[in-house]
Amino acid sequence: MYKKLTFYDLQKINKRKTIILILFFILIAGIMGFLIDNLFLGFPEYIKFPFLTTFAVFLSAFQSFISYMYGDKIVLKSLRARPANPKIFEEKQLINIVEEMKIASGLPMPKIYIIESDIPNAFATGRDPEHSSVAVTRGLMKLLNREEMQGVIGHEMAHIKNRDILTMTVAATLLGIIVLLSDLASRGLRWGGGSRRRDMGKGSGSAIVLIFLILLAILSPIIARLISLAISRSREYLADATSAELTRNPLALAKALEKLALNQTGKPIGNKAVSHMCIVSPLRSSLMEKENFWANLWSTHPPIQKRIFYLKRMAHAA
Amino acid sequence: MVTLSIIVGVILFLIIFAIGIYNSLVRERMQVKNAWSQIDVQLKRRHDLIPNLVEAVKGYMKYEKETLTQVIEARAKAVSARDKGDLKEIGKAEGELSGFLGRLFALFENYPELKANQNVMMLQEELINTENRIAFSRQFYNDMVMKYNTSIQVFPKNIIAGIFGFKPFDFLVIEKPEEKEPPRVDLNV
B122 contacts in A (CB within 8 Å)? Predict the structure, then answer.
């Protein structure tokens, strides 16, 4: 017999997981910045300022800010999403379901979009609850019944409620900083910066430091990407748990996920920018069902079977 | 001099602390009231939709006069309960109304012409939607009440709540008369 796990427990666990991951992320970015600015460039006496790190932070933050503010419009446009039409029965039903979840969550009403694609999927976007949108594909509307759709919309509203766009923007910023720093480091290593030669030429450990820097430059972007994916997965579990809180019907979402797992064929709607806000990963659909550790490591979403397992536990605990 | 400033500092800290608690209690009470007005909007919406539905299906369902009358009567009771604003009475009347509506929806199955009628289908969807909205706004209301009621009972918030007279709110319980299990409406539309 398992210990009872309510949606409150699962929310707490996954919120904590995100915080730990982000702190770890900041730590890595900090160490990277420190090492590169200190060892590699060295503080010239007249600057006394972590120049490269500051540069990386600002550039990455700027990129993230743009995508944070305008990402939703770009994504909706690129997927040719159109607003739902309340005169058509199926779309009116979708609007009604979103309205129900809006009431259950106490959030403002998001805009609702339809994407004419047969691949069943849905995502949420928008920088904050006041500017949020939910988009659903035609394939999803055909596949799910009303209750299951409610579970999926609950999951998307949960992404909005938990401020996951913001969370993932923070993760993307940190990732960007690390990638930029390692890029700068590897460029510098190739060309051989003057200050490095001056600082390191004296020490006997210079070769070791050099190897260490090369390793750091190669590995840190990979590690950073893995952390950002781990954050995304923790937000998926959290959104499932929040959906269960909203609908009080985790089994309907489990049912929807089962159907989704069986119907991810054909060309995915594939848009990297929203993959972490989708109900199931729109990329690499073939990897999704594998419980394979390696595949899971590189996915924005946890394996569907595992999500279903936790949803059923929540139903059991209620 | 030092002791005096420590005492003043402590008192100042306590006052700021108390203000913080007071404000949070006011905020939570506001949330409960907002949540209640949400329910009220949904109840009104349901009461407004029912006559339309009855009107639309009357022609098809000549042999179901009894059920239709029951729905109309239950609606009248729910309307008057809502006007009075007594939570227990509202819960009872709305529960009954839900029960009769569920029965009516179940009867729809016997009338294929009804299911083919776009207008009726829309109305049915609107009513299912309203049922759900009531259920979810009630859930949200009860969650807010739970949060608020807990706040005014736990230490040290209960002191501030006692001084300023923060009263607990009642939960809204909608009880269905006979069946505990809500009548299943075919949602696969």
Answer: 89, 92
